[in-house]
Model the fold of this input.
Amino acid sequence: MLAKRIIPCLDIKNGQTVKGTNFVNLREAGDPVELGELYSSQGADELVYLDITASHEGRKTFTDLVKRIAACISIPFTVGGGIHELSDVDRLLNAGADKVSVNSAAIRTPQLIDEIARNFGSQVCVVAIDARQTAKGWKCYLNGGRVETEKTLFDWAHEANERGAGEILFTSMDHDGVKNGYANEALATLSSRLTIPVIASGGAGCKQHFKDAFTEGKADAALAASVFHFGEIPIPELKAYLLHEGINVRI
Done:
């Protein structure tokens, strides 16, 4: 069985790592390069860096930061935010990123997924989905959770899978920063319907939440932010716990 992955996520705004609750009330959490270097040394399997206001503000993810991160870490990292065309992907990969995460642009222009997969390989294309439960079911949101769309979580994830995405990064906006656990029921549904890995995001508050994401949610990876940024759960401690609980992780 493939090892389950632990992935710290660094949301970047104005060059600093920030973290909020339900996508609002942001507070600073540290220097993104220093944090990346720390997590790499602690045994994180991958990192995700998201320029969280790039799509909303209509600008590109800053390439210089990606270059600085690549020089300091020894694990794969994914970069997202403001990616709209193949030249953006090419620029970020050349700066040192291993994968790119597309969200708003993929919803607006789904063929972007096909183009990234065809030109760079499916393994490069992570489709991030921000969704929350509404009266009409799980709906997908654009621009960092600001704009509701007509797309539903499970249909859109399936379409992204079919178009050549390498992974789905699903963030439950209702669970984000609340620390009550991941949206395991929705995760399990995604995992059962897709042929590609699913990354759980939104809701980690204690070590058991990670275990539950893997056992109940059937997730392939668990992503978290504040519990790592503010020192609440050290990664070596988390991995030792998961191993003890019978979860296959890389130590």
Notes: Residues 200 and 222 are 5 Å apart (CA to CA). Residues 32-42 form the longest helix (11 residues). The mean pLDDT is 91. The chain has eleven helices and twelve strands.
